[in-house]
Amino acid sequence: MTESPSRNLADDVRPREVWGWMMFDFANSGYTTVVITAVFNAYFVSVVAEKQVWATFAWTLALSISYALIVVTAPLIGAYADAHAAKKRLLALTTIGCVAATAALAWVGPGDLALGIVLLVVSNFFYGSGENLIAAFLPELARGSALGKVSGWGWALGYIGGLVSLGASLAYVTWAQGQGQTGAQFVPVSMLITALLFAISALPTFLFLKERAVAQKLPGGAYAGAFARTWETLRDAGRYRDLMRFLLCILFYQGGVQAVITLAAIYAEQAMHFTTQQTIMLILVVNVTASIGALAFGQLQDRLGHVRTLAITLVGWCVMVLLAWLAAGPSMFWVAANLAGVCLGASQSAGRALVGYMSPADRRAEFFGLWGLAVKLSSILGPITYGLVSWMSGGDHRLAILITGSYFVIGLAVLAGIDADRGHRAAAIDKGAGTP
User: Fold this and answer.
1) Which CATH code of 3.30.1340.30, 1.20.1250.20, 1.10.4160.10, 3.30.70.560 fits the domain covering 14-210+222-428?
2) Which residues, 6 or more positions from 387, have their beta carbon under 8 angstroms from its beta carbon?
3) Average pLDDT value for residue range 172-192
4) Lower CB density within 10 Å: C or N end of the chain?
């Protein structure tokens, strides 16, 4: 990085504060990598649900319940955070909730289906709510011309965080298997490792990140006012038509992304017959390529434009799905997985930056709440589609990934009609928005 990071930051922001913000991406990525993507999902299907034909569907249904809860609460939480300048306080509460529920997953053993589902729903709800809140700080920290770059820094560091948590879990799993332990013994310990690393890594966020928002008085009281303001945003969607169209685009392409994230280990073990160690090693390498993708495309999107950069990554996703579907052995699947890593880092970074670019300055937490709503709806759409197809087809995971991949094609079609600069201008003239 040849230029000074401070040139990309808002006038009153120091690099240390941005590092604190980025460290939350580092911290919470361990949860998604170990619990959702690499370890607990396959453990849930093979051990907790005892390899029943409906096991993959049960996994996706549990996640869908948690995402549905986030869909209902995200706009309200965002509006409340804006009204009370409470993003940081709410972020602390969601962090404690996710860490505690992740640690409690250590209690889930063979046949503990109900307990596993409840803890998964709770931990993922707190994770997703915190993800929305931390994203809402981005436009306060970065200059408008550097939103993509700073977002990319966060995502890149986040994938390194996932790498650290997964690496620590792999080290323990390797040792435990050498001692003759089974998954029912070593997977619960990996949940404790993940929770501990999340808690420790999030400390810089709460030490250095500042709450810059100013409390706003909402008519009718806090909760009623938050609902009223959220309804006003949805009612006035025409004023932000490019942002709203992009949220629709997110609904589709993130459906495919979320299916890959939540079902990668299951696909590797069920379709490609990978062992637990092989799957963890695969996800480790993919986290490296995802970090590279987030960093590289974060630099690129401020030059090419957010929309064009995202279009390139969606084409990459389509190619990845075809490669995974065609893969007859591990070599082609490794290529597909690493292409997914590059596209994952790039699309996540570009999406967050584009929402910030087209959001009114005094309603950012609220609009990132709507972003979270779209992402969580997609998190229901993609994985549940995969789960249903695999169940109805008698466990055909190749067919499931091919059908789920169609969401990338739909997202690309919706993206074609978005003008990011027009969306930015609409946000700038919003009453009371000031200068974005």
Assistant:
1) 1.20.1250.20
2) 56, 57, 58, 59, 60, 61, 400
3) 91
4) N
Structure-block tokens of residue 184:
């029912």
Nearest Cα residue to 261 out of 25, 60, 27, 118: 60
User: What is the C-alpha separation between 390 and 401, in angstroms, rounded?
Assistant: 9
Q: Distance (Å, rounded) from C-alpha 122 to C-alpha 109?
A: 17
Asked whether residue 209 carries a pLDDT value surpassing 60, the answer given is: yes
The pLDDT tens digits of the residues spanning 48-98 come to 998 888 998 999 999 999 989 988 887 788 778 877 888 999 999 999 999
- The helix-helix angle for 113-135 and 55-84 (nearest 10°) equals 40
Distance (Å) of CA 333 to CA 87, 140, 341? 41, 40, 12
H helices of 136-240, in order, are 138-141, 147-178, 183-201, 203-208, 222-235
9, β-bridge pairs = 142
